Amino acid sequence: MKRIKNLFEITSQFKCHVDISSLKPYGTGHINDTYRLKNLAGDEHDYLLQKINQHVFKDIPRMTENICRVIAHLKKKMVMSGKGDPEKEVMTMVATKSGPYFYQDSHGEYWRMCHFLKHTKTYDVVETEKQAYEGGKAFGKFQAMLCDLSPDLMYEVIPDFHDIEKRLGQLAQAIHTDSYHRVQEAWPEIKTIQDNIQAMLFFQEDEQRLTLPIRVTHNDTKFNNVLLNLKGKAQCIIDLDTVMADYIAYDFGDAIRTIINTGAEDEKELSDIRLNLPLFNAYTKGYMQEAGQFLDEWELRSLIKGVLLLPYMQAVRFLTDYLNGDTYYKIESAQHNLQRTRAQLQLLKELLSHAQEMEKTIYKEAEKHQLIKS
Ligand code: GN1
Ligand code: MG
Questions:
Q1: Taking the domain 7-118, which CATH number applies?
Q2: Rounded mean pLDDT of 210-214?
Q3: pLDDT score of 44
Q4: Which protein residues have a CB closer than 5 Å to ligand 2 (ion)?
Q5: Which atom of ligand 1 is nearest to the CA of 254?
Q6: Ligand 1 site: residues with CB under 6 angstroms?
């Protein structure tokens, strides 16, 4: 673990009492550095301290505004409906003594703190249908509760985050520059990406752009961003860095990407990457129970497209970073980003060959909620 030399300087800015000797790295995020700290004042919750990646997040004050806006909206809705515990079911950020919810230290680094909810767990790989169902309910409810928050209020944290044409443009640039002489090695993956382009341009079509509503979405719906309680029930959605205005289908697709893959996101053994379709069914069932109240027919039709697009887009992003010399994602080995690319492309292959089955499930679950006029 990298030592944080000015840990006291940082933690003493926030309105909380932490035991700085308890600092431990936490989680498996690819972008920020996260640490857990014990609470000196009592035992109801601990704290998470995060160093925010400024290379990725260019305007941290505005990103923090987005996060605080979403948190306030969710907490207010819980209080008003009298359903749920806003302390335990919505993230809580810790303010600094001077007011903002972040601190820029003497080296120019940005830090923030939030409550760490004890008696909760996250999973990188889903183990049971019940977990997948809970994940679906949690993300469906998250979107449903944000339905009445105007997307116009949201700052675009990372411009064109899910614009596949722009992402492909970045990849083309990286191939052209080939600064690290990696193009030849990655040629089979580049070829696979090129061969699949046409099937991935659904969200670029004028018809979709004119009909699909833009909503406030999470944009990083990996299963490990759902906290489950010790009974296995979804308790809280975390990692609100990329909450912004986008299409619902991207959140659905990114969740499926991590939930139904029998292998890891960076699985080396490609034959271990298969689809666990019962987990797809369970996620979709849970999701529709909550999202059934707001989804329109266009959105419903777009969900399967999101399922196919998101692993493809991740492959494009991982490969671009590999060709650019690994400046965006944290890596654990020299070829990590290439390995991630291969794993996502293998997942895409599996998804493409089961797309019809998955689509049927989506419609079957939607029918239960009168989303389809039969
Ligand atoms: C990054 O750091 P983490 O794991 O929360 C990335 C997501 C990717 C994900 C892939 C801001 O999220 O977009 O889906 O890695 N976050 C950003 O695992 O780029
Ligand atoms: Mg994230």
A1: 3.30.200
A2: 97
A3: 82
A4: 220, 239
A5: 14
A6: 29-31, 56, 220, 222, 239, 241-242, 265, 314
pLDDT digits (tens, 9 = 90+) for 284-318: 999 999 999 899 999 999 999 999 999 999 999 99
Distance from the alpha carbon of residue 159 to the mean position of ligand 1, in angstroms: 15
**Helix 129-146 / helix 60-81 crossing angle, nearest 10 deg:** 100
Domain boundaries defined on the chain: 7-118, 129-368
Ligand 2 centroid vs 122 CA: distance in angstroms?
14
pLDDT tens-digit series, residues 231-288: 999 999 999 999 999 999 999 999 999 999 999 999 999 999 999 999 999 999 999 9
Instruction: Give the residue, by CA position, lying nearest to ligand 1 atom 8.
Output: 220
Residue 373 predicted with pLDDT over 60: no
Pocket probe mutation, ligand 1, options 166, 170, 220, max atoms within 8 Å of Cβ: 220
Q: How many CB atoms lie within 10 A of CB 260?
A: 26
In ligand 1, the atom with minimum distance to the C-alpha of 157 is 11
User: What pLDDT was estimated at residue 3?
Assistant: 84
Q: How far, in Å, is the centroid of ligand 2 from the Cα of 364?
A: 31
Instruction: Give the predicted TM-score (pTM) of the model.
Output: 0.96
Q: What confidence score (pLDDT) does residue 77 get?
A: 96
pLDDT of residue 62: 98
From 26, 31, 162, the mutation candidate for ligand 1 (largest count of ligand atoms within 8 A of CB) is 31
Name the residue with the closest Cα to ligand 1, atom 12. 30
Query: Quick check: 318 and 329 in contact, CB under 8 A?
Result: yes
Distance from the alpha carbon of residue 207 to the mean position of ligand 2, in angstroms:
30
Structure tokens belonging to residue 338:
């290439």
In CATH, what class is 129-368? alpha beta
